[in-house]
Design brief:
Radius of gyration: 15 Å
Number of domains: 2
Number of helices: 5
Number of strands: 4
Distance between the termini: 12 Å
Shape: globular
Strand order of the largest sheet: 2-3-1-4
Largest sheet: 4 strands, mixed
Helix content: 40-55%
Oligomer: single chain
Strand content: 5-15%
Amino acid sequence: MTTRLHTVRRGDGPPIVFVHGMGTSAATWERCMGLLADRFTVVAVDLLGHGESPVPDDPQEYTRDRALADLDDVLAHLDDDRRSAFVLTQVLGLHYDEAAEILGCPIGTVRSRVSRARADLVEMMRDDQSWNEGDEAVG
């Protein structure tokens, strides 16, 4: 899994990905990452044009669609069912019962898919050299 965005990774366990707001950087999440790294793989992303990520001159690189595509790179290798459950609950913040209704399946199935998606993401991070450099910033 390669990304053009600068990321900071710490810890080990189920992944939590932090995305900052406009005008800030991955450093915004430093304290939260420190508190969670003993139980989770915490990853903070510098969005394009922020922090240590590239600053392209082309304005077309800064569209909402391009930003979503950059973030989607992290989720792209999950199977469709797991990705849908993960995005609905972990990215969009829906409750598991709401996701179950949208997906047309039992709530237990949603919980299982999210759990497996987390495990898949952790495995992908372990398989990718850029995620295996300990607590150092990687880009």
